């Protein structure tokens, strides 16, 4: 039975890989033409027309391919949009990393940068603490918006209508006894973040972890990322918070200035 299950999983994985390979093969061929019909694309991709038509129908439905009234297929700008966003994130990381490293060297603690990723924030930079005891995280990890410092900064930076729409479908699940679980309290805190220019996570996402974050803004003044420093609670000194904030805000402003933001 175990052998049969293993073979079934292997066949399933191979089928999925084949589908991915075919999908990208089709997209790469489409990228070589302004527009192309099914027959010619079948020749170029070496796929049977029924199979190709099935893949194309899915890509049309997803918005990556356009089919006109003459049954000519072409790529849409959605693929360009995906690629350009990826380039923007890579450029942001490249610009921010030296500043984040300097901030880590100054304060000694773990530094993260995160961006909005649907209903979450996602780490795009992590600079490890200088200390032996560190927090677990990784680039690519997604974290909640409402109970993390980076997440709150990103939420606070959204236009009112978009923020309201996101809060309308957000469940405020408790991670610790300190997690904000009432929308009114969260909205009050977001307004305070806009006023003060920084956000805090007071053991709201992980017990034993304190975090402070500041916004990173682009040339239009939009909040495009959050920059944070995280401490184990036993290394966080409340009396030093203003000192922490000075360096955090300097770092956030420095990255924003490199993105063309004028203060």
What does this structure look like?
The chain is α+β, with helices and mostly antiparallel strands and about 260 residues long. The protein has two domains: about 1-75, Arc Repressor Mutant, subunit A, CATH 1.10.10.10; about 85-260, Beta-Lactamase. It has helices spanning about 1-30, 40-45, 50-60, 80-105, 150-155, 160-170, 185-195, 240-260, and strands at about 35, 65, 70-75, 110-115, 120-125, 140-145, 200, 210-215, 225-230. The strands form two sheets. It has a six-stranded antiparallel sheet, sandwiched between helices. α4 packs antiparallel against α8 (about 240-260). The chain is elongated.
Show the helix and strand layout.
Elements: H1 2-30, E1 36-37, H2 38-45, H3 49-62, E2 65-67, E3 72-75, H4 78-107, E4 110-117, E5 120-127, E6 142-144, H5 149-156, H6 160-168, H7 183-196, E7 199-202, E8 209-217, E9 223-232, H8 241-258
Antiparallel strand pairs: 1-3, 2-3, 4-5, 4-9, 5-6, 7-8, 8-9
Helix pairs in contact: 4-8, 5-7
């Amino acid at each position: 039975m175990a052998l049969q299950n293993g073979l079934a999983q292997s066949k399933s994985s191979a089928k999925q890989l084949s589908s991915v390979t075919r999908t990208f093969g089709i997209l790469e061929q489409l990228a070589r033409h302004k527009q192309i019909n099914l027959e010619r694309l079948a020749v170029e991709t070496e796929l049977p027309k029924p199979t190709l038509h099935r893949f194309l129908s899915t890509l049309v439905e997803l918005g990556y391919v356009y089919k006109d009234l003459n049954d000519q297929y072409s790529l849409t700008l959605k693929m360009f949009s995906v690629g350009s966003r990826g380039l923007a994130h890579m450029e942001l990381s490249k610009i921010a990393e030296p500043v984040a490293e300097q901030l880590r060297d100054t304060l000694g603690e773990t530094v993260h940068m995160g961006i909005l990723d649907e209903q979450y924030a996602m780490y795009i930079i992590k600079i490890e603490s200088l200390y032996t005891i560190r927090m677990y995280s990784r680039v690519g990890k997604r974290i909640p918006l409402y109970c993390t410092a980076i997440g709150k900064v990103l939420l606070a930076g959204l236009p009112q209508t978009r923020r309201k729409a996101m809060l309308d479908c957000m469940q405020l699940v408790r991670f610790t006894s300190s997690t904000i679980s009432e929308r009114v309290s969260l909205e009050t805190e977001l307004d305070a973040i806009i006023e003060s220019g920084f956000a805090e996570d007071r053991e709201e996402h992980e017990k034993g972890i304190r975090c402070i974050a500041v916004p990173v803004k682009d040339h239009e003044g939009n909040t495009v990322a959050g920059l944070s420093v995280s401490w184990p609670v036993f290394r966080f000194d409340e009396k030093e918070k203003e000192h922490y904030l000075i360096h955090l805000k300097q770092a956030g402003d420095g990255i924003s200035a490199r993105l063309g933001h004028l203060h």
